[in-house]
């Protein structure tokens, strides 16, 4: 690992920014803000929303930082341009930053209801288990599947409102969680396979990982529609129509612009499109149930 003796301040700041994986963290921030707003509508308490979003953002940043910290040896071989192996951030600095972010998360959680603490700490435990070894196994998909429903549950618990219909988030979150895990793993598929890391995407292979990811997205939309048509969980018809239409358009873009036969650089685009589909499906579904 090469560390320069004197690192420019601007380069160091860019290193810390990249260490936090700002793209994925932004989507998590957007998701928890959307769910918290839906949970508290039409009488949101903005100070509570800031605490909910702030605590979750600090936690996601901590998980991202520890992800790079735990992968620093592998990245030194496969991705030497990343902040730690490139020397922009030292391992000790990353460790201190991650611990500080966890401390900030706990501080922001203190004014929230105890159930919100429990759900947030459970998510943190899953994220750290992922970083500390489960990401290198097919169980990584299960970790994502368990973690995804915790985001809206945490947002609703943070405002003290847990309606019974949220139990349906478990099967929906499972489907979307596995999809997100596959999408997240695909950009690094070759490096993971070469280093012996057996993520779910590596075990399935590129073709099947794309196929299963796309199929689970479609199945998630079908589940929402089936719940509505069977009267198990009705959704406001206009919201359902808009949600499924937007989902269909994003899914078409996903099939058109990404896929196993497309250049490797399009896999990151696949991840972001999958995240958008998940946000539209889950957010639209919750909005349609609540209004």
Question: Can I get a quick summary?
Answer:
The protein is an all-alpha fold.
Q: Mind summarizing the main beta sheet? A: none
Strand content: under 5%
From the N-terminal CA to the C-terminal CA, the straight-line distance is 55 Å
Please count the helical segments: 14
The arrangement of helices and strands along the chain is: HHHHHHHHHHHHHH
Q: Per the principal axes of the C-alpha atoms, what is the gross shape?
A: globular
- Uncertain residue segments: 1-5
Radius of gyration: 19 Å
Q: What's the CATH C level of the largest domain?
A: Mainly Alpha
Written description of the protein model:
With 291 residues, the protein is mainly alpha-helical. The chain folds into two domains: 1-137, Orthogonal Bundle (Tetracycline Repressor, domain 2); 163-291, Four Helix Bundle (Hemerythrin (Met), subunit A), CATH 1.20.120. Helices cover 74% and strands 0% of the residues. The chain is built from 14 helices and no strands. Helix 2 (22-40) runs antiparallel to helix 3 (46-70), helix 3 (46-70) packs parallel to helix 6 (114-131) and helix 12 runs antiparallel to helix 13. The protein is globular and about 55 Å long. Mean pLDDT is 90; it is low at 1-5.
